[in-house]
Amino acid sequence: MDYSDISPKYLVELVPQVSKILWDMFPNAKYQNVRRYIQRWHHSDVGGWNGDEYFENFEIFFKDKDKREIDLDETLHHMPNDLLIKIAIDVGVDTPGFLPVVPQFKNVLKDENQSAYQNFDRATKNVFDNPDNAVALAASTLEGIIKTILEHEAFQQDAGKLKNKSLSKLVAEIVKQFSFDDTTKCPQEIITIASQLRGIGSTIDDLRSDKSTAHGKTASDYIVDDPLWAMFTINACATLGLFLWEYFNKKYVPALQSKDQLIEVDNKLIDLSEIPF
């Protein structure tokens, strides 16, 4: 992936965000621990036939001569673009230029399904170093949010039965529950889109099974090894998951809430929300 064309404005604005998160992460002995964290990303080597050529992937700047207090902002500003992005993702700073729907989807997952949230967080952090693992985790996240919807009182699907369903079957089930393929409720275009949703779910499922190490692979099997494919899959899972969740919230949750507002008095249903006190 080419990072040379990333907007300088975007990178300059990214640095203080990363810096703040790092200082907040290590409130105790913060200079020491932030320095240690940054040093984990630092690589250097001495080369040349007589050992006179020195290479390092970035320079660490300090505020003092004893090199105890790291100048974090200056260090981050002098890092290669790709490394700054990797660190931003690692510490949880939103990077919308690369994973555009991730922040919004994370907010949903954090409130509704902690297990799926943790899987998704790990997926974004594995994009560069373990792209195939990122693909598998993104697929598991999509499974998680669909199960959360199907287990809701609106559908009351049995959690035990959903547990062993593949992603392909889960997507097919939620398309059915949402009536996306019902000609009496949806125009033909929506039915066509619904068939594509099934295809997307099935393809992501196949990608996890066939192109990641989730189910074990031989040396000759192809494994997703490009962060670009991992980011594409994560964005696809997040987009589909976010759409399904927002559709559920818009079409089903209000109906359930209004139902809870009804009480029966003298054989008549009264809407509590309409009572002016």
Which strands sit side by side, in order, in the main sheet? 1-2
Q: Biggest sheet: strands, sense, closure?
A: 2 strands, antiparallel
Shape: elongated
In DSSP terms, counting alpha (H) and pi (I) runs of 4 or more, how many helices? 12
Provide a concise account of the structure shown.
With 277 residues, the protein is mainly α. It is built from 12 helices and 4 strands.
Molecular structure report:
The chain is mainly α and 277 residues long. The longest helix has 25 residues. The chain contains twelve helices and four strands. It is elongated, with a radius of gyration of 24 Å. It starts with 7 loop residues before the first helix and ends in a 6-residue tail after the last strand. Helix 7 runs parallel beside helix 9, helix 7 crosses helix 10 and helix 9 packs antiparallel against helix 10. The strands form two sheets. It has a two-stranded antiparallel sheet with strand order 1-2. It has a two-stranded antiparallel sheet with strand order 3-4. The C terminus is likely disordered. It has two domains: 93 residues, no CATH class; 184 residues.
